[in-house]
Amino acid sequence: MRKTGRPRAARDGSDVPTILFLCVANSARSQIAEGLARAVAPAGYRFLSAGSEPGRLNPLAVEALREEGIDISGHRAKGLDAIPLDEVDVIVTLCAEEVCPILPGNVRRLHWPLPDPTGLAAFQAARDRLRVLLPQLWGDTT
Predict the structure, then answer these.
(1) Which of 26, 30, 27, 10 is CA-nearest to residue 18?
(2) Is 55 helix (H, G, I), strand (E, B) or coil?
(3) What is the pLDDT of residue 9?
(4) What is the pLDDT of residues 122-133, one digit of tens each?
(5) Which of 1, 88, 117, 131 has a CB 3.0–4.6 Å from the CB of 122, allowing a cystine?
(6) What's the predicted TM-score (pTM) here?
(7) Poorest-confidence range of 10-24, 51-65, 108-122?
(8) Which residues pair with 108 in a beta bridge?
(9) What is the pLDDT of residues 91-122, one digit of tens each?
């Protein structure tokens, strides 16, 4: 949530915390985070992802989540211009070896440095690490 503790109103008028997963290409880590978060989070959250230099959705990201019964095949890589930034309460950057995008604003910020995956095993490892980290966003650390 915003530092004020109250979520920003979404365009549809709802007051739900909006969490943005951000990396460079929005092709792998942030896509996995968005898809996994939507599948495992409790109700009452909105998840988005974007990249500062969007590429194409990596088919290995799709496969890593398909193994868990989560379908992100309809996702597409998005740039920041496709995100309602004024509605974002939390930004989670997922860059490790590259320079992460920085956005101004009064939002909660988290940095989870995950290496850019190459090969299915690395995508699976990123997915599994995100499964451990994601509950921090909704306060379930058990």
Answers:
(1) 10
(2) coil
(3) 52
(4) 999 999 999 999
(5) 117
(6) 0.89
(7) 10-24
(8) 90
(9) 999 999 888 888 888 899 999 999 999 999 99
Q: What CA–CA distances, in Å, run from 1 to 17, 32, 54, 72, 112?
A: 6, 21, 25, 25, 17
DSSP 8: P
Architecture of domain 18-135: 3-Layer(aba) Sandwich (3.40)
Q: Is 5 exposed, middle or buried (0-12, 13-18, 19+ CB in 10 A)?
A: exposed
Residues labelled catalytic: 23, 95, 100
What pLDDT sits at residue 101? Answer: 87
Helix 59-66, helix 120-133: angle, nearest 10: 60
Residue 103 phi, psi dihedral angles, 5° rounding: -115, 135
- Report which secondary-structure segment, H or E, holds 40: helix 29-40
Can you list the positions of beta strands (E) in 1-142?
18-23, 46-51, 90-93, 108-111
Please name every residue paired with 90 in a beta bridge, in sequence order, or none if there are none. Answer: 19, 108
